[in-house]
Amino acid sequence: MVWAEWWVWGVAAIALAVGEVILPSFVLLGFAIGAGAVALILLVGGPLAVWLGASIPVMALVFAVISLLAWLGLRRWLGVYRGQVKTFDHDINRD
Question: How far apart are CA 66 and CA 60, in angstroms?
Answer without folding.
Answer: 10
